[in-house]
Amino acid sequence: MARGAAAASLLRICRSRDNGSRNGALLSYRRFGSGSGQFGRSAASRDRGLDPNLDARCRPVSRSLGQLLLRKNLLCRSPYFRVVSAVDARLYCSSADKGKDLEDARVFGSGVMGGENGDGVESSKFAECLDRLAEDGDDLKGENACESISFVDNGGSDESEEWHMVMGEEDGSGGSVSSTVDVAYKNVGSRDPVDLYRELRDSEERANLSRDKWKILQEIFRCLAESPWASNQALAIYIGMSFFPTAARKFQTFFSKKRPADITMYLISLGPSQEAVKFLFPIFVEFCLEEFPDEIKRFRGMIESADLTKPHTWFPFARAMKRKIIYHCGPTNSGKTYNALQRFMEAKNGVYCSPLRLLAMEVFDKVNSLGVYCSLHTGQEKKNVPFSNHVACTVEMVSTDHLYDVAVIDEIQMMADPYRGYAWTRALLGLKADEIHVCGDPSVLNMVRKICSDTGDELQECHYDRFKPLVVEAKTLLGDLRNVRSGDCVVAFSRREIFEVKLAIEKHTNHRCCVIYGALPPETRRQQANLFNDQDNEYDVLVASDAVGMGLNLNIRRVVFYTLSKYNGDKMVPVPASQVKQIAGRAGRRGSRYPDGLTTTFELNDLEYLIECLKEPFEEVKKVGLFPFFEQVELFACQLSNVTFCKLLEKFGENCRLDGSYFLCRHDHIKKVANMLEKVPGLSLEDRFNFCFAPVNVRDPKSMYHLLRFATAYSQNLPVNIAMGMPKGSARNDAELLDLETKHQVVSMYLWLSHHFEEETFPYVKKAEAMATGIAELLGQSLKVANWKPESRQAGKPKPKEKPEQKEDGYERPQSLAKLFSLRRQNKVPEIPHAEKLST
Ligand SMILES: Nc1ncnc2c1ncn2[C@@H]1O[C@H](COP(=O)(O)OP(=O)(O)OP(=O)(O)O)[C@@H](O)[C@H]1O
Ligand SMILES: [Mg+2]
């Protein structure tokens, strides 16, 4: 075979892969991602023009070809070419002095340049040219010389074709092949990653590496596999976080097998660094697109079914309406709810969405007493008043199917609540009402503005000021509960503290205390609130948890913070300023016996923190809560097989996509229930989903046990029994009181389930209702006489240590944690002590 023909026959033409998939991925990436499309083609890789400073006859020789030629000592001896410059790690050659071969240089150069007229050079011409070079060289001979040459089409882009030549073996010394190579590989960083991947994929000669360099390379790949940035970016092409390490490992194996010298040396020059990761990543992307189409497809399906971006599109009917949103924005006790309710009552029909059952009941009573028929819908209770067109409900229960003239969503700032926020977001996005009044503090005003611009609803803002300013009493109680006065509400953040305070006040003063805390049924809370509000009895002090903090109208003269720290489920933290304001705002309500509100602390130490909180402006909320509907979870479940419901929720949490204005609400408690219900076979996905939302205290084993029992009976198609006796009488000690609380929770859970599942399966609703009323009454009676030391709900929990400052009169002075935090901010105190978990 003629030498030229032999060379030509060995030229391989590597056509580009179909670019469609890559472009698709890039599109997805941009849609998904954080902006700048980091694996697009670099401008440098497009710039293949001549350096204007070079002689017009000079042509760049492709880097790899230049490397080979130099390495083989061809250029310096060639009659045709000489190196005139090295710019940007690229050799520029000109015809040599002999002068007659300029044409060859042009041909050679145009091979690199894509032809002077942009039409490229045929490979045979290049082969010819190479042959002529070879004739003059010593060791670039025939087939051996040409074996490492490939002709690469750059994928049909508008860029020129380019000659590539894969570098040969390293010289064995562990060093680079030559200094020319050093110059050459530096250009790798500016090359198109798509080309780099092709070079890598098609590489047949792998660079030998010294042990040190091999180690560096391993480190670089470890960095890639462990890079949170890369793992996050890989989501853009639907490489999931869990699959990413596998993909990265396979990429490493692939690279190790190929290891073209220029890319390898360039990588090693970067070392194990973020730069190396960012260089490798787009090549890794190309690899993944080619190697893992099935995984990508699967993950893409999963991601798309967990897409929580654009939640405003979830409610097409509401979107078809032109709704008017009126934001009643202001601090506590400024008339927000009052004004919204005026419109609610004037309307032909309306819905009021409350954050609490108790507040829904309050509105239900008030509206009916004013002659507007109104029904009540809470998770546990449905009171349908005949002829009513109005309904007061808890926000979780509001229907997005009914059409209303006026809707009120109270305490709209709860959209940012980590657990329940989704219910407010859903109501705002989905309510089909011509006019929606939202009441709340200014913290979510900007979010509501943004949502309205997404939904196309009209927004009107009404700003309010507090009727009367809240006054801080500088004197405080000086750490002595004997300084409590009539009309005081002492706020503590655990059930235990509430009872300790009540006990101490009743023992050392003539006041009698009512109590309100989270574990009490709303009926009992209302009974206690009425007892306190009523003038004609001895109950003139209220001891309460933050359960009094929202919207309730009580006759409170002064709010006294017993402590300003609370357990957040993990550790003791200062009560957030927004909550302090909300609670303090209970004092001095318009129309009450005490229109001028006062607030103070039990300890002088806490006063500063209280003042700080009250002065603090409302912090702007940047994200509000979301949670998927059952249908979304179901769609997601179709993408996964053989996973438990708990795992499904976990996977959903990992893979769901949200835009920057939303967060996925915390659902640890739901997962706990889901986990427990794994023991119950035969529940459909929807059943599991509904059971998981039942109101159960996951920290109370008795309540959990009853939920398990209900679910088991339900799964066996048996009528679900309450299977719990009515308590004999009111509580005589704290254990009995706790038992009453639990029993009420269980009955309440039964009622909730009866409203969320087929009625026939929960046939004892009437019995449950009677029990709920009875137990709430017993609780009320018990609280009236309660004068015992509180117990812990959790069996076996270690008792809190005796505190050093124990007063002889039987109650412990709480340590001022707010003060401790403030000192810690100034680095004066090392650690905040852990404290007992809240049981409210
Ligand atoms: N215009 C009014 N006329 C008579 N009473 C009013 C008026 N506005 C408000 N009130 C009364 O003032 C009290 C506080 O009003 P409202 O409950 O509307 O305050 P709010 O701003 O919603 O407070 P919060 O943030 O605590 O919910 C209520 O008892 C309410 O009935
Ligand atoms: Mg209100």
From TrEMBL:
EC number(s) stated in the UniProt entry for this protein: 3.6.4.13
Location(s) in or outside the cell: Mitochondrion matrix, Mitochondrion nucleoid; Nucleus
Source domain of life: Eukaryota
Alphabetized UniProt keyword annotations: ATP-binding, Glycoprotein, Helicase, Hydrolase, Mitochondrion, Mitochondrion nucleoid, Nucleotide-binding, Nucleus, Transit peptide
Any one Gene Ontology molecular-function term assigned to this protein's record: ATP binding
Record flagged with keyword Transit peptide: yes
Residues in Helicase C-terminal domain copies: 466-629
Region (Disordered): 787-817
Comp. bias intervals (Basic and acidic residues): 790-812
Protein name, as recorded: ATP-dependent RNA helicase SUV3L, mitochondrial
Family classification: Belongs to the DExH box helicase family. Belongs to the helicase family.
Annotated Helicase ATP-binding domain residues: 317-433
Any single GO CC term annotated in Swiss-Prot or TrEMBL for this entry: nucleus
CDD domains: DEXQc_Suv3 (cd17913), SF2_C_suv3 (cd18805)
BP terms from Gene Ontology: mitochondrial RNA 3'-end processing
Subunit composition and interactions: Homodimer; in free form. Component of the mitochondrial degradosome (mtEXO) complex which is a heteropentamer containing 2 copies of SUPV3L1 and 3 copies of PNPT1.
The protein's required cofactors: Mn(2+); Mg(2+)
Reactions that this protein is recorded to catalyse: ATP + H2O = ADP + phosphate + H(+)
Enzyme class: hydrolase
Classification via PROSITE patterns: HELICASE_ATP_BIND_1 (PS51192), HELICASE_CTER (PS51194)
